Every structure is written in C-alpha cells, then in structure tokens.
Amino acid sequence: MVSNINSTKQFPLVPKIINGGIAGIIGVSCVFPLDLVKTRLQNQQVGPDGEKIYKSMFDCFKKTYKAEGYFGMYRGSAVNVLLITPEKAIKLAANDFFRYYMATKDGKLSIIRQMVAGGSAGLCQIIITTPMELLKIQMQDAGRIAAKAYEVGKTNSKTSATNIALELLRTKGITGLYKGTGATMLRDVSFSIVYFPLFATLNDLGPRKSDGSGEAVFWCSFLSGCAAGSLAALIVNPFDVIKTRLQALKHGEGEVQFNGVSDCIRATIVSFRAAFCRPVL
User: What is the DSSP letter of 3?
Assistant: First the structure.
C-alpha cells in the first residue's frame, strides 16, 4: 500500500504543533477516567488465592468513584494536561515531518517508509512521555495503594506530582524521572508503527472535501483514527502493562517489585499462571 504526499507544499510545522496540542488536551479531558481505571487494573497483582481489589473495569469505576468521588477519577490529570501538549505536538509533527521528507519525488510513500516514519515519531515523543507517564501513574495508582494499605490497617500520606518530581530529582537526578524508558520506547514506537500507516491508509480510502484541498472529510478521518487507534492499542497493550508496572514507585502490601522489562514479563506470566491455571481439586 502506497500513500500519496503532496510534495509541492511547504511543511507547516507550527500549525501541526498547535493542532497536536489541542487534540491532546481534548483527548485527555474526555478519556482520563478510563485511563485511570486502566492503570489501576494493570498495576494490581493477583494474590496467591486469586484475590484482587478490582474484579473488572466496571468494578474499578464503581469502587474508585465511591471511595474518591468524581474528582478522584481525574487524579493525576494536571500532569497530563501540562505535558500532553508538547508530547502530542512532538508525536504528530514528527510523524508528518518524517513522512514529508521520506516521500519520493513523485510524492509516494511506501508502507515500509510509513512505518519507519511512525516509529521515528514514537521514538521522538518519549523524551516527554516517560516523565509524564511516570508522574501520572503515581497519582492514578495512589488510591489503589491506599486501599491495599487499609486492608492491613495502615495509612498512606497524600502527595502530589510536584513533590514526587522534586524528590526524584533530589535523590536520583534527572534520570529518576526516566524510569521505564525502555518499556515506554517499546510501547510508543510499536504503537506509532501500527497507528500512523493504518490511519493514513484508511483515511485515503474515504471521500475528499469539495474545497479542492484533497483532504478527507471529517467523518472519514474520525472513523479512521478510531479504527487505527483501537487496533494499535490492542496490539501494544502487553507492552503498556509492562511499562505501567515498571514505572510504579510504590507497591501494595505483599506485591512483587520488578527489575527490568524481562523480569516484569516473566513475573507477570508466572503470576497469571499461578492464579488462573491452578489444578482443580
């Protein structure tokens, strides 16, 4: 599959950065409660007898809302709103940049080049994504950690993303904010390799606007983005689980801590087998 690039136009960097930032903020505002639930479900570990705090996505929604209220569903969103603009701006602008300069003289872009462009964009974004995700995860998972502590009669003091960031900088330097970089790279590069070429391919199949711009109509771009994003997210979800678990700085009582990507993969598989593949007596 080959995509067409209009090589006669200048590359409009600033509008793409602005559009990417606006899209990122709107996206965070709409789906952040879902992201919080995802983080808590990914970070919870199944006990030796199969016990866990949240039985399903809806159970996590219900328990979180009951314990923390409406604003509890948006815990950690300030970090995302602050950093999502540069993150999405870098990602979207970098993809368009690489696509623009990797196109052939006749404006063609092969599927391989589209994948390289997308992967390169995913690689560029991790400079912002890694610390943003690290801080966001601590805030999102705080309620689950508090619930685990409450089960054994303990309490956890409240904190903020600013305090966490300052403590990491004080104790570990700038590298402290980049814990889980390898896992973040694995997720974001893989996602972008799938998402951007698939979106461009689906978008090219739809009807064009009547203004002569050659751009797809809104509903086609919207549906193409939904389809490409859903498939890409499904494919990279295992990498996302590993990233989320590696970036958790605090753990509940009795939970396993991980030492690198391979150790996290191994321990997660072992834990799953122990919980769900037990022999029936």
Answer: E
CA distance linking residue 199 with residue 76, whole number of Å? 29
> From start to end of the chain, where are the E strands?
2-4, 108-110
Q: Which residues contact 176 (CB under 8 A, 6 or more apart)?
A: 168, 169
- If pLDDT is split at 50, 70 and 90, which confidence band does 9 have? low
Query: In whole angstroms, what is the distance from residue 276 CA to residue 281 CA?
Result: 14
What is the overall mean pLDDT for the chain? Answer: 87
Q: What is the DSSP letter of 208?
A: B
Backbone angles phi, psi at 105, to 5 degrees: -60, -30
Residue the block writes with tokens 């314990």: 67
Comparing C-alpha atoms, which of 85, 118, 84, 81 is closest to residue 17? 85
Residue among 134, 135, 158 at smallest CA distance from 146 = 158
Over residues 190-213, the pLDDT tens digits come to: 999 999 999 999 999 989 888 877
- Backbone φ and ψ for 4, nearest 5 degrees, come out as -95, 135
- Across residues 220-224, what is the average pLDDT? 93
